[in-house]
Amino acid sequence: MFDEKIFDYLNSSETVAIFTHIRPDGDCLGSALALGIALENEGKKVDYYCPSQINESFMFLPNIKRFNKPKLKKYDLAIAVDSSDLNRLSQTGEIFCSAKKTIKIDHHISEENYAELNYVYRLPSTCEIIYDLLKQMKFPITKDIALALYSGVSSDTGCFIHSNTTSNTHKVASELIDLGADFYKANYWLFKYKTLGQVELIKCAYNNMTFLENGKIVFVYVKIKDLEKCNLTNLDSYILVDNFVGIQGVDLTVVLTEDTPNFYFVSFRGNDKIRCDKIANVFGGGGHVNASGCKIRGTIQNIKNRIIKAYNDNL
Predict the structure, then answer these.
(1) CA 46 centroid distance within chain
(2) pLDDT by residue (tens digit) across 16-31?
(3) Greatest CA separation for the chain
(4) What DSSP element (H or E) covers 277?
(5) What is the rounded CA–CA span in Å between residue 37 and residue 60?
(6) Residue 44 · residue 107 · CB < 8 Å
(7) CATH number (domain holding residue 84)
């Protein structure tokens, strides 16, 4: 899967910075931490960068508090994980580009090869890719590394229920459990844990739920005032989307979270009748076949109309 170039870059670099994308999820955090811990165990000095605040549900991950506390100013090597384009690194992109050497490792198919070395493989998660890399390099996989990798594999497959799950995904998860990954801890924090404020936000979202196109689309939104009422930020909205997936007769679930007035983060979830990634692409976003996202500016009614059109155009 990997060639000698990446082995040379990793072995010859003494100082390394690892980067995740904005609004980080379990896969980008898990892959960054697993790779970083492995490199530190080989004697490298590693800093971690994330362009957004990290949600408390990820605080169980090893080394998570190391993000955005750099000890170094210059780097031999910068590695971006799970980030399809340079814009996903947001303000940390400048630091990434200043390194002597750069690597991109991702599972989102993209034509933007913004690093010197670009490794993109269509696998369910970036953590599966990192797992293969560590095995190829014969780096020991400790319990902390196994937990980080398992968390990414589990989160990007929706705890193994999304259609991107493969037999190899289950094999990798099994091997990581055998290596010491605490799967119960990971799945509790990733899929069960909720604050009381998040429960209140779910109630607000149900009040704002409508069905479109004869029940084929469920459309949900929360506004800034809803977040403030629940004493939350938009980072807490990740809890919403799975509450509206699987409704009888629904092809497409759409969840909007207002970031600034009339500017929304959008999550799409779909069944096998619809390509969420193609709908997200209409609005400049992307992601997976059944789980994608984008950003949209407009009024709620205007956004509804545009999503209805994108849905019908991509049936």
Answers:
(1) 21
(2) 999 999 989 999 999 9
(3) 59
(4) helix 276-282
(5) 15
(6) no
(7) 3.90.1640.10
